[in-house]
Amino acid sequence: MQYSSLLRLLPLALASLLFPLNAALIPQPLQFEQAENAPGFALRDGIRVDIATSHSEMGRAAIRALMAAGFSVLPEEMDGALEVHRIEHDNPEAYTLNVTGQQISIGVATPLALHAAAQTLAQAAEHGQIPAMQVADAPALQHRGIMLDPSRHPISVADTKRILDLMARYKLNRLHWHLCDDQGWRIEIKKYPLLTSIGSKRKETSCWIHQEKKDGKPVEFFYSQAEIREVVEYAHSLGIIIIPEIEIPGHASAAVAAYPQLGNQDCPDFAPEVITGWGVFTHVMGPNDFTFQFIEDVLAEVCELFPRAPYIHIGGDEVPRDQWKTSPAAQAFMKEHGYTRESQIQDHFTHFCAQVLRKHGRRMVGWDEIMCAPQLPQDAVVMAWRGMDHARIAARRGHQLILCPIHAFYFNFPYGKNPSEPFYSGLTGFDDIDCAHVLNFDTSVPGNQVIGMQANLWSECIPNMKKLEFMLMPRLCALAEHAWRYGTPNRPGAADFSRRLQTHFSWFDAMRINYRQEDGTPRQP
Ligand code: ACM
């Protein structure tokens, strides 16, 4: 080694003396050993990848994953230090790492796992070094997600990408995108242009929890198909799949305002509009030919825009039956099909959606209300939000399920019951969702039907990124750990999590995240 190289390494050697490296990873890997007192891998100007690895398919995928995780990478080096190999494992995201002073060796079952390996390295890297360590890791659940709601308050493409960055850092791999609701339709659909020219606009908005107080400011927002593709590709570069949601047949006011033929036009006082307040509203889809054709057409465009989504979310929650009771056309539809209860109209919609999606090679996922449908297709995925009882019913019926119980994983609710807690309302009854609660909440379900876990961030009362980040961080980290280590032995407790979390605040600061600090205050008041 040349003298000049030695000089270059001197600050790193000093740094390792001054700052003993102690990787504090979230989620905590299944197996993790750090070699005490062994020299770490010095990053210098980047990770050097040897020529052979740079030219292999897996090597190129590793380079992309490392760069997406924030590393600078020097490909095609003669003295490359990165080595990638395949391991045998039935979990596609399983990986191993062996880091020494001279080499980073990554073992993966599939290229998908390179993202998790790269993020572990990124979290461990500190003061220009990655500590010498050995890791053997794999997630317990295949769907680890966050739900975003740009319907109630717009979330820009740039902000959505920023949230994807935060998710990727903590190995969350699914973004559930709630793209329409009563308060606005947010996805361009070429065949139905009024969805966006009318349905994406509302006159004004209720202020926070005060329904009657309106801000007087018009809202107009949607994602063009080009923007949707851009976000989908960005997510893909981070190893994240986006699951889009189209609400059927309820939460449909914006869609019905755009196309009244979608609604129950023969109801008394039928006057749909894009809603400016919060709650559950009576405008639901009507069971007619126009609506069923609409569903086929919209889901066809959605499947094309989200080519990697294995299941598509069709909503199904909170569907009032009032209009179906008073609509002569809906009553005639019931008679024609031999239905005796209005709820069977919803079941009809659910079955119809499943059938359309199957034609596109996709499965259906819906909120747990879809379970009311008799003979719900066995491959329907149930998203259990009303509580663990609903999750356990879904499991008993043999459905795969994703857990997002309102009692622990609704991140729109405050962290604490204290009236001084930012955004405390005292109204919801779910006012103490702190990290310990997210980690400790009993999510056990007999059997092995749970495939995922996610936090939902409903945005009625989240008008901007500053508040969104506060509600998300650091709870996102706790959710990520709960999902990664779901049901695994020696799951670390909340105190251990809290100790590791301390070391993540400097990254939050570098990212300029408005996280909730330990004293309960926002980082950027
Ligand atoms: C929901 O919170 N309505 C799924």
3D architecture notes:
The longest helix is centred in the middle third of the chain and has 17 residues, at 289-305. Helix 3 (57-68) packs across helix 4, helix 5 packs parallel to helix 7 and helix 9 crosses helix 12 (343-359). This protein starts with a helix and ends in a 15-residue tail after the last helix. The radius of gyration is 25 Å and the shape is globular. Strand 10 (143-148), helix 5 and strand 11 form a beta-alpha-beta unit. It has 19 helices and 23 strands. The model is unreliable at 1-9 and 15-19 (pLDDT under 50). It is an alpha/beta fold. It has 2 domains: 5-137, Chitobiase, domain 2; 143-496, Glycosidases (TIM Barrel). An 8-stranded parallel sheet has the order 18-11-10-23-22-21-20-19. Strands 1-9-6-7-5 form a 5-stranded mixed sheet, covered by helices on one side. A two-stranded antiparallel ribbon has the order 2-8. Helices cover 35% and strands 17% of the residues.
